[in-house]
Amino acid sequence: MCVGSGIDRSFVRGRAVLVAGALGLLLAVGGCGASGDSSGSDAKAADGKSAPREGFADEGGAAASGERADGKASGRKAAPKPGAAATHVIRTAALSVEVRSVPKAVAAARAAAEGAGGLVASENTERLDDTYETSHLVLRVPQERFGEVLRELSGSGKLRSRTSNAKDVTDQVVDVESRISTQRASVARVRELMDEAEKISDVVALEGELSSRQSDLESLLAQQASLKDRTSLATITLDLTPPDAPDEDGEEDDPGFLDALGGGWDAFVTMLRWIAVAFGAAFPFLLTGVLAVVVWRVLRKRRAARRAAVALAARPAGREGGPAAS
After folding, report:
1. What is the DSSP string of 92-159?
2. With CB atoms 3.0 to 4.6 Å apart as the test, which of 2, 107, 132, 293 could cross-link to 242 if both were Cys?
């Protein structure tokens, strides 16, 4: 009995030890879980604190990037836009104006062109019937003053006709400039080859090539100068004519007796003039005919005189010979 009771006690103690160990293990596991939870919560808290900071940092970065973007945009807006390529235009105009005094209108047109910084390229004034004058002028004015001068000339009298043209030659100008650059480089290369040439035959050949390329270059330079002149100065052709005998009201009078008399006299004088011209043209032929008639009559008279003399000389000889024969 004592032995059984001892065994039971030792078994109970063993179970108690096992239970105590299990409880200790459970407590240890619970402590680890609590510490893990606390550390997890701390980490979450730290993450929560750092998240707003990261958010602020992102917002600040976005704001900064936005400011940089705005700065770039404002910089782009503030930066001046590259200007468009310069255009080259040839402008021409033709005007026909009726004025009361052609000399005064010519002086006014000259003053308008020279006042705008231009010049009178040509002028041709003619007098009609010793009464009226007409004038033809070619004016060259700067492009920027073209419209102003055109309006001033159009208002100098009664405008009869007006035409204006504009031709864009920008492509032609650019092409000529490019060809000039290329040709100059070509001439420079030929000159370098001439400096390096040693044989006379090579020098002669290069001189011919250089002369040809320089000629082409001079032709291109002449084209460039012509384009520059025509694009810098516009051309205005102006015809000034007097009115066709207007009265104060600007209307023409019907022809009267004096007008008819003057017209008839002019026709009569014109007829006499043409008769004189015709007589002058026929005079050499008439003179030749008269001389021929005079010569013919003189020769005819001489022949008649000779025949009469021969007849008179033959009659006495015939009478004397008759009785002698009988």
Report:
1. EEEEEEE-S-HHHHHHHHHHHHHHTT-EEEEEEEEEETTTEEEEEEEEEEEGGGHHHHHHHHHTTSEE
2. 132
